[in-house]
# Entry
Amino acid sequence: MRDRAVDAAAYEAWYHTPRGRWIGDVEFRLIRRMLLPSPGESLLDVGCGTGYFTRRFALEEGVRTVGLDPNPLWTQFAKAHAVADEFYQVGRAETLPFADHSFDRTVSVTALCFVEDQRRAVREILRVTRKRFAIGLLNRHSILYLQKGIGGGAGAYRGAHWHTGGEIRALFAGLAVTDLSIRSVVFMPGGGPIGRAIEFVAPNRLPFGAFIVVAGDSRQPGA
# Structure
């Protein structure tokens, strides 16, 4: 969830505010549950930004992580804050600089919301993934969209594309994937006591969370 004009340190600092920490935890738990990483596996984070989720996967899940982002200033920030020998490099989602089936798992957190050719980026993610992928997107059918997404977006959401469930399914139509599932979290984005309580009781199958994740198994030839 980022505007590339935002300073990397300022963006990272948001995750250390009470609301940012809560949202980061909720999103990470959903991605982890849908991605199913195992210690020792390799993982690529496409559009890693400051490396917030990359670091968490490396440190908490014990996977060998690579973070990729098109912004060299952000990858430089991520490198400076590495916690578990994770590797960062500059690159674009539409032309991933890796061989076929290079990673066991691939994750991308809202980065595709800022990519013009999303279908091409999805194909690239599938190409480099041996096992499973999880892609986080912004949900147009959410309270957060009404607050931050209308009229081109505000703040870090400026210029972002907000997806519907139908659009997400269309992105994967005809591609070599199985076990495709869509879940969402962050139903009340304010992060207050009521919103946090709702997060515990609302099933992730509800399609109204601000953060929506699509995950599945890659079935590319030769994988």
